[in-house]
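Researcher: Structure for this, please.
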Amino acid sequence: MMTSMGIESRAAAAGADVDVAVTAPRARLTRIQWLICAVACVGFAFDTYEITVFAVVARPSLASFGLHPGSADYNRWVGLLLWARRAAGGIFGMLGGYLADRIGRRRVLVWSIVLYGAAAAGSALATSLPALLAFRCLTIVGACVEFVAAVAWLAEIFPDADRRERVLGYTQAFSALGGFLVAGSYFASISAAAALPAIRGGHDGWRYMLLFGLVPAIPLALVRPFLPESPVWRARRAAGTLDRPRVSALMAPALRRITIVSTLLTACSFAIAVGVIQQVPRVVPGTRDVRGLAPQQVERAVAAVHVFNNLGNVAGRLLFTWFVVRVTRQRRLLRMFLVPGLLITPLFFVLAPELPFWLVQGGDFLVGLIMCAQLSFWGNYLPRMYPTHLRGTGESVATNVGGRLLGTSAVLGVTTLTGVMPGAAAVQLSYATAVIAASVYLASLIGTRWLPEPAGDRLPD
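Model: Predicted structure, token format:
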């Protein structure tokens, strides 16, 4: 059986049409392709870990620096730490997409994981809030660059349309594993922190959680240099037909609509994921059955609810993967998740403070399922809309500029609205989150009217 590396080298040498030559449709995956999928799964899982972990540890980490919920300084730093790191990821993630088109997907993947690991260790050792903010920004930069390069890499290694959709869907489903790792590591860190080696003279559970993000960086940094480059990108470059990527080309008449619409709709998807869903760990301590518990019990309740959120994330990713090969109209596919989101998510946050604990868990499962299903859409859709020399750049503009720079600013909307909502602190937060959820889902649903459909199953050249 031919390996993908062998096919890659022959295609590059001959300048062949690698969209046909990389692998025969329905042929069994080679060992190197299985390894590529495994590496992508680990990378996606820990991307999610780093992106979501701070939503859980924001409260205890700020408390260790003397800030407590309800104060103006606390709300300001929560908004800054949740948004600024995403904004940094959006700005530099766009650069990463450009570099993936310019110097290759594999090289960018290797260096992004090195940055990611070093910054994760720095976050755990931070001695001030500005230092913590700086290291968290660098960590998210590494994760954002890694995601864009990995999606382009996978899409080009699996050119058969049905297989490509399934590979992108199932590997992205492992993103949900990162959420389980957050919940599990949080529960372990608050339960066993006293028995672990001291970090900066203390046993703060949040520091162990941030340090855990270093774990995947070592094996990924060792394996990725030996994996094959994208055969499509490499063949085009070898043949001298790979145009230089230019961000301005995304606004050419043929691509202008897809660039604008996908950027704005991706912003809406990330606004739900960050501005809305990641408020749940802050909502839980003020819910009916949790607000009177001892501090350690409160933290365990937060971890328990987070498990259900991640069960929903897995279910959403898998549900999307099932639908993506059965629903050909992309607008219809996206609307299948936006309509339930508009109906269910705001209602959950309005009612959350007075719901029994089991309904808080169930509600978090459901809103997580809906959010992850529609967020998965973009990883499958965007590679089908841009040619090879702009695939990473186009993805990065939508995902990083739209999603991580614009979309994540929704968290600032939540923290701003919280102060003007009626009721106790927990009720104010829930109501503010519900308003943002309803507004964003409605805007996204309206925006799908202008979403372009892919020209066909094949990736554009």
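Researcher: Any notable elements?
Model: Confidence is low (pLDDT under 50) at residues 1-25. Residues 154 and 168 are 7 Å apart (CA to CA).
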